[in-house]
Amino acid sequence: MIGTAALAVQVVGSNWPKPHYTLLITGLCRFQIVQVLKEKPYPVAEVEQLDRLEEFPNTCKTGEGLELSEQFYKYAVQLVEMLDMSVPAVAKLRRLLDSLPREALPDILTSIIRTSNKEKLQILDAVSLEERFKMTIPLLVRQIEGLKLLQKTRKHKQDDDKRVIAIRPIRRLTHIPGTLEDEDEDEDNDDIVMLEKKIRTSSMPEQAHKVCVKEMKRLKKMPQSMPEYALTRNYLELMVELPWNKSTTDRLDIRAARILLDNDHYAMEKLKKRVLEYLAVRQLKNNLKGPILCFVGPPGVGKTSVGRSVAKTLGREFHRIALGGVCDQSDIRGHRRTYVGSMPGRIINGLKTAGVNNPVFLLDEVDKLGKSLQGDPAAALLEVLDPEQNHNFTDHYLNVAFDLSQVLFIATANTTATIPPALLDRMEIIQVPGYTQEEKIEIAHRHLIPKQLEQHGLTPQQIQIPQVTTLDIITRYTREAGVRSLDRKLGAICRAVAVKVAEGQHKEAKLDRSDATEGEGCREHVLEDTKAESIGDTADLALPPEMPILIDFHALKDILGPPMYEMEVSERLSQPGVAIGLAWTPLGGEIMFVEASRMDGEGQLTLTGQLGDVMKESAHLAISWLRSNAKKYHLTNASGNFDLLDNTDIHLHFPAGAVTKDGPSAGVTIVTCLASLFSGRLVRSDVAMTGEITLRGLVLPVGGIKDKVLAAHRAGLKTVIVPQRNEKDLEEIPGNVRHDLRFVTASCLDEVLNAAFDGGFTVKTRPGLLNSKL
């Protein structure tokens, strides 16, 4: 085995992220391994030196060696002179050819010219100098021939380029076809001409037209190979495609609009009224700016579908922009064209998709915008949703103003709590509350059931769902403000019926084939056999079900399983220390149980149920108010002491502990719950309440009254206690709900306690004290 002894001249490298080094070495001589002494931790061997660069033999100075040396030198000089002598490395190599000994040239030239590793190893193995010259001369000749061919090819290409440059001006003047220009270049030039024509004939504003003309001049001077060429061309194509002055004509027939809205959506009177008002004003004034509406309500109440119906009513194009999770302002305003892969924002892109400058834009889930290092998209929307600014909206990609004043923006949200105040101020808030049970029944039979029948290939002759069954689904299998879960349950029923119908058709086909083979007289025999064998093969021989299939409560239980929600209110209020409150969530109103218990202790108050700081403060307020009024209401602890916390611990718990709860509206419920605990009396099982309290016993107004009242109505409660200053909010509640419920408006906790207990808040007193009724 032959190797090369070398000296490391320079070491360059790093240990991060992983060790890597580059060695600069210079060869000394060839050697041959005589014996390997050891292999670990690194190989050590006894070697024999084969040659030495400083002491060459005189074989190349006489005879055949001299002739080979001169021939090699001639080819080496010829090869170097074919290279570019202006390169410093090439000039240095030319000088080395004259200064170095001839014996060293084969090794040096072999490392420079293009050779394979196998050829280099063969030259390394050639210890004899004559053999080395014989092996390297063919490699030099091969490299010289390759350079000659390369130079010849470049010369022909330069001549062709000169002819093309000379012919192009002639083609422009005489329009002579059949030149050497590529077909792709012709097509590209045609596209540029068409793009320039579109720019001239477009109706874009003067400022945008000037920018397009300027960019077109730059595009013509730009080589197609430049990256900026494609970027500029895409920009011009977008500018041409934008609907600067293209718009649709609104349908302003108010009667037809009212009929269309009523057919598409049941209830939602506030929302329909606002749309009709816009149509009426639009009919009187043509240049009315588009309003910015925000529909706020729980999921599943139809906010998104209402936006689509508004566009259909107006006869406008509809475009939906989902903003949930967006955390980059460039999604709204676009990227600047200096970035690689830049593109316009969603607003400009939506206008391009709609093809008109007055579409209906639905900004879905505007309350779920994010915020990151890339900016705040909610702040970017301030310009879009401001009627005083959006007529001059500037996208970063376009860098010219676009008029958004004719666009009808409709935003949707589940809550306004997470919307920035500045953005909320720019929108007209329209509350879309949850549906009542009666409204859900109407929606189910007008819209949901026909839609599910069509999707599952069923007809009303095959399935019937009475209103009583629909009410059971609403009350026992769903508990929501919207109708999404109701729609899914109806879909499950239709799928189960579809299986029965498909099996029935298969069995009818089998019976028909039996009739055809055995004759009409054998029909009774077939049916008897069917009954006889039904135990062994029921699936194949059972008769098809009678049509239509009626869905009753028993069918519901078979298809949907046992009821998910049972009315447990009376069971949970069967002992003192339990009261029902009303809570508002982004999903609608909910009833909320509050439980309290007392035990011997050191006067500590324990709160559980994932409560927020505001609700914890309400609990401390409630216990403080009851302690200060314990003598007045004759409330005592287990030992008969008016100090309710004397040697007594109180534990307040809000069930559904996995759900975070906060807000001030549970104050009256906590007071009622603790009053029930200390008095030993039961709170009425049909009463729910809401309201904030003060340390002086006043009841302050709270929000979400309509959603809370609807939740109480869904739960089957009969009496709702609300703050007196919320009496104005009761007018928004549907008439049928107001008819089913009794409302008690309270301004202080005395009125709350009197309404929450049967016969008023009377307590059992100690002997010698009169019974009191408060």
UniProtKB/TrEMBL annotation:
It is found in: Peroxisome matrix. The active site is at 665, 708. ATP binds at residues 297-304. The keyword Iron-sulfur does not apply. Pfam families: AAA, Lon_C, Lon_lid, LON_substr_bdg. Its EC number is 3.4.21.-. A motif (Microbody targeting signal) lies at residues 772-774. Keywords: ATP-binding, Hydrolase, Nucleotide-binding, Peroxisome, Protease, Serine protease. Gene3D superfamilies: 1.10.8.60, 1.20.5.5270, 3.30.230.10, LON domain-like, P-loop containing nucleotide triphosphate hydrolases. One of its GO terms (biological process) is protein processing. Residues 1-144 form the Lon N-terminal domain. Residues 573-759 form the Lon proteolytic domain. CDD domains: RecA-like_Lon (cd19500). One of its GO terms (cellular component) is peroxisomal matrix. The keyword Protease applies. GO terms for molecular function: ATP binding; ATP hydrolysis activity; ATP-dependent peptidase activity; serine-type endopeptidase activity. SMART domains: AAA. NCBIfam families: lon. Interacts with PEX5. Interacts with TYSND1. May interact with enzymes involved in beta-oxidation of fatty acids, including ACOX1/AOX. Belongs to the peptidase S16 family. ATP-dependent serine protease that mediates the selective degradation of misfolded and unassembled polypeptides in the peroxisomal matrix. Necessary for type 2 peroxisome targeting signal (PTS2)-containing protein processing and facilitates peroxisome matrix protein import. May indirectly regulate peroxisomal fatty acid beta-oxidation through degradation of the self-processed forms of TYSND1. This is Lon protease homolog 2, peroxisomal. The lineage of its organism: Eukaryota, Metazoa, Chordata, Craniata, Vertebrata.
